[in-house]
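Input (structure):
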């Protein structure tokens, strides 16, 4: 019998928050996976700290609720310890692009076979509205009442420069496309990066801004690096530019985990390791 994927934990996200779309999109992707006969016991979700991170409480799969900015190293460790697992990270824009930035670059450089979904709402929502690395110039929040004096950086361009092998941009109000991008990211063998434009209904509601600018890529050759760079730069310093959604770049390269022994351990070996760990004899 298919499992119930939404847990009974009390949901504390604000009404209208984009996290709901991501929760239900992930739920649909996982349900499809189960329908295809793949066990959800082999899936691990790793979250950081922030509103997004409650996903670990709200989705009924194996999960690790880790430290701020540390989703990627934890996910990397899980994948290396057991390469048979499918490891999905959810991180916020503060998580992935500030505290965890070095981990992000190295995950792309190494091509570790994990999927990273960045809930990019351009604000620290959990701490009530400070600016993040993707907040636009002039953003007025709790820590910048007169407006930021920094330009936001471009995560898609950064991932192209860092060597990521699957790069996509989604939007929480385009759920079918988002579902395809997440499904394909998980299916991709290598580091899959999905930047998701998400609404923070309470501290930075960008709905009108996004609705008038986003478009879905058609006829784009995702294997063409130069074309991908062009798409990545289309929406950059010019905040009035159109915003491309879809798979921006993809290529195949050996994964980081493929360079290490890939035999997964048996149940007996795992129990024996745990026993040794508990005895402190490792
Ligand atoms: Fe969502 Fe923003 Fe509320 Fe956090 S503060 S739950 S990101 S709407």
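Output (sequence):
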């Amino acid at each position: 019998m298919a499992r119930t994927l939404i847990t009974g934990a009390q949901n504390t996200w604000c009404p209208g928050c984009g996290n709901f779309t991501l929760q239900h999109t992930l739920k649909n992707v996982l349900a499809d996976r189960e329908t295809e006969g793949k066990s959800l016991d082999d899936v691990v979700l790793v979250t950081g700290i922030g509103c997004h991170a409650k996903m670990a409480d709200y989705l009924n799969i194996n999960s690790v609720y880790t430290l701020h900015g540390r989703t990627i190293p934890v996910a990397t460790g899980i994948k290396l310890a057991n390469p048979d697992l499918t490891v999905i990270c959810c991180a916020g824009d503060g998580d992935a692009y500030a505290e965890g930035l070095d981990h992000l670059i190295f995950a792309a450089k190494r091509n570790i076979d994990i999927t990273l979904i960045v809930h990019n709402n351009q604000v620290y929502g959990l701490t009530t509205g400070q600016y993040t690395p993707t907040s636009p110039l002039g953003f007025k929040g709790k820590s910048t009442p007169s407006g930021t004096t920094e330009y936001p950086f471009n995560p898609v361009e950064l991932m192209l420069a860092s060597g990521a092998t699957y790069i996509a941009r989604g939007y929480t109000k385009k759920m079918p496309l988002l579902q395809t991008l997440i499904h394909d990211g998980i299916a991709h063998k290598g580091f899959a990066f999905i930047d998701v434009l998400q609404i923070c209904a309470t501290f930075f509601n960008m709905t009108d801004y996004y609705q008038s600018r986003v478009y879905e890529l058609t006829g784009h050759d995702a294997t063409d690096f130069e074309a991908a760079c062009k798409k990545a730069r289309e929406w950059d310093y010019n905040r009035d530019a159109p915003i491309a959604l879809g798979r921006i770049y993809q290529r195949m390269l050996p994964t980081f985990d493929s360079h290490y022994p890939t035999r997964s351990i048996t149940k007996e070996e795992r129990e024996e390791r745990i026993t040794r760990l508990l005895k402190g004899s490792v």
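Notes: The chain is about 35% helix and 15% strand. The first strand starts at residue 43 and ends at 47.
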